[in-house]
Amino acid sequence: MVMDTEVPRQEHPQPWIVLRVIAVVGIALSLFQLWAAGVQPLGLFYQRPIHLGFILVLCFLIYPVWGRSRPRGALGWAIDGPLIAASVLVGAWLPVNIDTIANQIFPRQIDVWVGVLTILVVLEGARRAVGLGMTIIGAIFIAYAFAGSRGELPFLADWMPGILNHRGYSLDRLASQMTLGAEGIFGIPLGVAATFVFIFVLFGAFLEVTGAGKFFIDLAYAATGRQRGGPAKAAVIASAGMGSISGSAIANVVTTGAFTIPLMKKLGYRPAQAGGIEAAASTGGQIMPPLMGAGAFLMSEFTRVPYVDIVLVSIFPAILYFGAVYLLVHIAAVKQGMTGLSAAELPSVRGVLAEGWHFLLPLVALVALLVAGYSPMRVGFYAILSIVAAASARALWVFFANGPTAAGFAALCRRGIDLTLQALELGARNAVAVSMACAVAGIIVGVVGLTGLGLKFSAMMIAFSGGNLILALLLVAIASLILGMGLPVTAAYIVLIILVGPALTEEFGIPILIAHLLVFWYSQDSNVTPPVALAGFAGAAIAGSKPMETSIQAWKYAKGLYLIPLFMVFNEEIILGGPLPLVLWSGAIAIVALIGFAAALEGFLFRPMSLWQRALIVPAVIACFWPDLWLEIAGVIVLVAVFLLNWVQAKRDGDRPGAPAPRFDPGPPTAS
Fold first, then answer.
1. Where are the alpha helices (DSSP H) in 405-533?
2. Distance between CA atoms of 569 and 566, rounded to whole angstroms?
3. Which residue among 105, 109, 223, 611 is least crowded, i.e. fewest CB within 10 A of its CB?
4. 172 lies in a domain?
5. What is the pLDDT of residues 302-346, one digit of tens each?
6. Is 595:327 a contact under the CB 8 Å cutoff?
């Protein structure tokens, strides 16, 4: 689950000895996590600090002080060496001294100074692995804790409005809050990263190393390649599978996009369009069960709703999102008169399944174990064992089928060990960014709990919105967009739910699970929303298009990120359940409304739509979202009538002798 915050620049190669050390530390971390997940579970004051210590060491080894594009040099090692030593101290201090710390009333001065050191190295590690924005936000929250008459920085109190004022806290108090309990750095965010998230990051690394990624992409091509706009539809399907595994929209773009974007361009999609489609589809991978990036695990901890329940209620909204993207892709293909690829250019479904059917077994095992009630951490452990077993069984089958030899068996064993070590190292590398983001998020959570900022922020939100739910949701969307410009998705979700969650649930009456899903979905929008659309920029780099034009296309195709959460808020039954007729009705009108939205956006369904038809669709879609049964019925009737009229007109055009296929130049990219 790589959580990149920018498209990477050309890296300067690390010395071989550093690469070896990174590999050893990464493999050691993965083995430690596997031991804790499946053999001997550890208490939180052992698991979390040791995990953080490993992650910090890896962070300072992988990300030099001058950045990855320049050599570290002697001065760089003079800075990074002490930081690596400090990371070891940070990881070992709490587990070694746990008995002394647990039995004292007031913290020792040495504990306070180690706490200060922990905060500093965490902020510096986040700067390198996540980006400067995360560090700045963490520093601002620390300064806020010091701002008050009894704090270290009392003069800052004069700069804050009355509602934000508080008593202020000393360095001793803040350091203790951050590092000597479960309410700061070693709180829920890092706890989730050190348990559930890491084990599934490792699971994704094993899938990647064993070739599962290529299998899922080939399967998507084989299933959709002959259809109009086939490569674009394959991008949607492949990204749904790969995005949930990788946990990063950008990682998803650069892996699946390397295959799908060139084929989309070959088929006739404009470069910006191809990059935008891939970015929108890849962003949806983060909301796709069963893994959903790191979000589902965090949501389970915050809401106390079982992980498997969150996965189950997220299936239908995720299908709606990918269905909307798929429909927009289909409409764009029909508008531009595209055809599918020929059979000779595509793999067959049977051939792909024959080569890689064993990759489906770990996913089946994962879902089965979750439904059976196993903890996510134990499920991840067994899922990793299952992928190792499936890949090994497949390799042995091929080995014996091709004529076994002693030399061949030795080579097979060496390759198996090499791939296992690669996966262990890759999983640890991929976990660095998400763990660093969660560590800084722990600082934010600790300060919010210490100062009562969450309740104050909720009061401000209610004041700004005037108690209007629509305005409040608009404020949440704007806040998520601003936060997402400087934070990864997981960090933006944590910060935002801490600040606005109490207001959404207590003042506006939104059920807690829907409030978390709303914020989690909105936290994805920075990947595809200009001016800082990170997944869009990654797609532009592969497509060779302008970043802003590509981002506008990505924003257009990903509009479901905004609409579907609204539908959850005003139609709670699709998440919380209810009478079966009501659930079926809500699901049906959601599908109809999204079809109408796509048709109005593109001006096309079965044929080009007239302006009055598009104008009629807009209020009908709004009516489908309105929490009033008769308005919903009226909206559905209008939408179905427009769809039927468009279909009849298309059929009439097709029946006319010599009538050309509906095709027109889509013109310049639009955002509406």
1. 406-451, 453-465, 469-484, 489-502, 512-522
2. 5
3. 105
4. yes
5. 888 888 888 888 888 888 888 888 888 888 888 777 776 677 777
6. yes
